[in-house]
Write a structure and sequence with these properties.
Rossmann fold; globular; binds flavin mononucleotide
């Protein structure tokens, strides 16, 4: 089941948020991200959140987010308050991540579990949509091997979470076999082209 998109235009939100989920600052994931960012217009403000540095507390299923909603979701932790404000302000969210065990690295999985507040607001508290403006999202995945199944799993996780977050996953790029060779020029071009296409839609 998915929530309706709140029909507030996002084209005037010139903020992009990068969720960077590799522990390596200069590996394959960074190369893909750099290629993507080279296609973003210069007047867009881009903020990068390093998820390993952010180190989100895992959701502990306390169900506090199911109990009430005033102006924002309730949560046992406040470590992601600034992150959620940045998320809300962004017209485009870029998730750049390696594949770990056919899924997200642990800190990014913890972040996704903390999106539970939106699920609770929508399904437990009566169709509340805390995210008033719509945003698009893209997924950039680097994988040491084939990576197709990992991309499928991650895409499913994004679509499931985003269905109650006024957020639409609009594109993805996979850089496969990064443990065997450098990212190909065609993947670099694909990432840049996706940024140009999505930017036209969003900004
Ligand atoms: C803990 C761990 C688990 C991994 N699991 C997978 C996997 O399931 N599938 C895969 O294709 N590559 C896997 N890899 C390889 C990484 O996805 C690959 O090296 C990636 O490009 C690393 O990105 P980086 O250079 O930005 O760190 C794994 C690597 C690590 C360290």
């Amino acid at each position: 089941m998915s929530a309706d998109i709140v029909n507030t235009p996002s084209y005037n939100i010139k903020n992009a948020l990068v969720i960077y989920a590799s522990p390596r600052s200069n590996g394959a994931t960074r190369a893909m991200l750099n290629a993507f960012l080279s296609g973003i217009p210069g007047n867009v403000s881009v903020k990068t959140v390093d998820v390993y540095a952010l180190n989100p507390s895992p959701c502990v299923a306390c169900n506090r987010c199911e109990t009430d909603f005033s102006d924002k979701p309730l949560c046992a932790y406040n470590d992601l308050d600034e992150f959620f404000e940045d998320f809300e302000r962004s017209g485009l969210v870029i998730i750049a991540t390696p594949a770990y065990n056919a899924s997200f690295p642990a800190p990014l999985k913890a972040l996704f579990d903390r999106f539970q507040r939106y699920y609770s607001a929508y399904f437990a508290l009566g169709r509340i949509q805390p995210l008033k403006s719509h945003r698009n999202a893209v997924l950039l995945v680097s994988a040491g091997h084939d990576g197709k199944y990992a991309l499928e799993v991650m895409t499913h996780q994004c679509e499931s979470s985003f269905s109650v977050m006024n957020t639409t996953l609009t594109g993805c790029v996979l850089a496969a076999d990064t443990d065997l060779h450098e990212i190909s020029d065609s993947v670099i071009s694909e990432a840049t082209a996706l940024a140009q296409k999505v930017s036209k839609e969003v900004f």
